[in-house]
Amino acid sequence: MRFEVQPSKVTDARLTVPGDKSVSHRALMLGGIAEGRTHVRGFLAGEDCLATLAAMSDMGVTILRPAPTELVVDGVGLHGLIAPDTGLDLGNSGTAMRLMAGLLSGQNFSSVLSGDASLSSRPMQRVIGPLELMGATIESHDGCPPLTVHGNPELRGIDYTLPVASAQVKSAILLAGLYADGITTVKEPAVTRDHTERMLVTMGAGLERANHRISMRGHQTLHGCDIEVPADLSSASFIILAAVLAERADVLITDVGVNPTRTGVIDILQAMGASIEFENQRQFGAEPIADIRVRSSSLRGGVVDPALVSLAIDEFPVLFVAAAAAQGKTVFSGLAELRVKESDRIAAMAEGLRALGIQVVEVADGATVYGGPFKGGVVESHGDHRVAMSLAIAATIATDTVVINDVAAVNTSFPGFTNSLEQLGVSIR
Ligand code: S3P
Asked: Which string of DSSP letters, residue by residue, matches 70-102?
């Protein structure tokens, strides 16, 4: 599958985007091991979360789906999961694989977690290390999937400092910690998204958080609850940038999650001169949301604060496009983690932007992007949803047609992406 995007005039619009991917995964996993029923509205019906849904069903959780984005999860309790008949295929999803490794570490059965070619090359030692310290045994292929997780119902709590800032690793340890004797403590080198912590508290778990440390006692009962999933700020970022780059547009994106551990992209774009405002701020349960108003603005380059990296970790592909459309140069650093996402995102974006006429100087942990006009051309997504969508936004202001190859992965996180762009007046096929 490929996208063909014409230079387009983005117009005023009011729209929303699909549900948050991180919250949707967690609603399934925590809802599945809670006591009682969890009712989820606004679930992201993208391939990544559907892989988690299938995995939880395969382990005995009854999940009804009265509507595509609505779930009724009948929790089986902490000790109610059963061994799946076959291996669990988690597709493209690093979140599903790493969180599931944590959840499965405390079970009284073994299971095999596998994924597609991209997921099969992603580093898993970062979860294997702490989970083995807790008492699980995990086989891998040189630290990569497939993983065979030999669960141990007698895990022990650990006090662990994450070597890399990662919400996935933090969450894997906390999920295993539910099954561990004593206290499990995770210390983060930088703040990462805290949806797991918020949902655990909503479901009744006691959790202490201070000075980048999260501590939790094991063997706590979770209680099913109602979860309204905010629209995904990471998906909204593509719409936000399309509106910023437009000649004259005023776009409102409604009900978007604005958890402060996720809003680095807004801070970075605002520092570059973007007009972005949060309106109607309120809560969806434990998660803050807002309607985001974006007006076209001219962007200027600068030095992106590396302290914001963990708060904008998924938005650097789209921020590279913002930098390429800005006046002057933009310097990104502290991005080593981008090299082990769904693709090597620094290399993939540098290649894509260069093909559109932009000068990019790549370094090991970042890049300098020189603003300039985009020309048309053919670019590769490297099978990465966020690279594909970022290049589609660049295409809206190119001088000629842009073809983006290999875009099927967009359905992992943003089903309906082309419809959303059409709502903005973008010509995309
Ligand atoms: C996620 C955490 C991030 C992010 C991913 C989703 C999560 O990964 O890139 O898309 O839901 O916990 P890391 O925590 O590995 O940086």
From this structure: EEEEEEE-TT-----SS-EE-TT-HHHHHHHHH
Q: Are 248 and 159 members of one domain?
A: no
A 10 A CB-CB count for 264 gives: 24
With pLDDT > 90 as the criterion, what percentage of the chain qualifies? 100
Residue with CA nearest ligand 1 atom 5: 95
Q: Is 171 in the pocket of ligand 1 (CB under 6 A)?
A: yes
Structural domains of the chain, count: 2
* CATH number of the domain encompassing residue 13: 3.65.10.10
364 lies in the same domain as 270: yes
pLDDT (0 to 100) of residue 244: 98
Q: Which residues pair with 47 in a beta bridge?
A: none
Residue 194 in contact with residue 167, Cβ under 8 Å? yes
Q: Kindly report the average pLDDT of the chain as a whole number.
A: 98
Ligand 1 near 314 CB (within 6 A): yes
Q: Is 314 a catalytic residue?
A: yes
Edge-first strand order for the sheet with 183-187 is 159-161, 183-187, 213-217, 208-210
- Which range of residues forms the domain containing residue 309? 2-19+230-428
Could you read off the pLDDT of 188-241 as tens digits, one per residue? 999 999 999 999 999 999 999 999 999 999 999 999 999 999 999 999 999 999
Predicted confidence band of residue 367 (pLDDT cuts 50, 70, 90): very high
Collapse the DSSP code of 152 into the 3-class scheme (helix H, G, I; strand E, B; otherwise coil) and give the result. coil
